[in-house]
Amino acid sequence: MTLTELKYIVAVAREKHFGRAAEACFVSQPTLSVAIKKLEEELEVKLFERSANEVSVTPLGEEIVRQAQSVLEQAAAIKEIAKRGKDPLAGPLKLGVIYTIGPYLLPDLVRQAIARTPQMPLMLQENFTVRLLEMLRTGEIDAAIMAEPFPDTGLAIAALYDEPFLAAVPSTHPLAGHKTIQAEELKKETMLLLGTGHCFRDHVLEVCPEFARFSSDAEGIRKSFEGSSLETIKHMVAAGMGVTLVPRLSVPKEALAPRGRRKADDEAYVRYIPFEGVPPSRRVVLAWRRSFTRYEAIAALRNAIYACELPGVKRLS
Fold first, then answer.
1. pLDDT tens digit string along 76-112?
2. Structure pTM?
């Protein structure tokens, strides 16, 4: 039994496909298949049920795969301990970020990380929350920046900041002249939402729950439209297709400048309006496995995040 064989069975269990697992492990499918067959013969158990379309893990195989993942993590920890003896920050840090945070935080974060810890480059992965949680569990990434809430998976969590939401409306909309807005005023509007899978979609529906019924059936198309990214939705707002909510960091600086100083670009067609009173918001956190041994790397990453400008958010320590 080798660590390579354990890596192969974990990959097959994750991908549920021998070809994709082989690609993820950078080996040919025959090489992976032969190694797994050899391990099954050595253990005298069947780890996977093979069918034409999918590979499933046997009940005993699931237990063995979980143990294999634990062994791989412990083996990686040995390497990390050795690295820490030389330089705790040496080597890349694999960081995951959800789609509605990455484009707005990463440019500044990468600059801060390069300036502070050039020996620790960030290997970045954008994805949905549910996928990042799985990648954390399997060791594909070391840490992730996400928005609460998400399922309790036993991860270590550090709160980073609370980020308020603003309403985004077309500049020609009757609400565009308002200095502040209330959630009640959005109820009669056509709401533009991110597609299913984005946690920010759920945040918007918490503020305007009445749109949940429009986002789940054909009739609702008259009242709710979906976009693939926040930037796409902003363009839809500029085109006058509806209104939406956006997190504060996604709002360009120029858009909140006095009207006479705003640039004459697409942002001139979108008006960002703060909420009256206590605004709806999301809590952004950094999560990592409790078994992750590079404590100094996590601390350095947090410091780099805190060094970012982060306009309009409430920093947490």
1. 878 777 766 667 788 899 999 999 999 999 999 999 9
2. 0.72
Residue at token pair 């620790």: 120
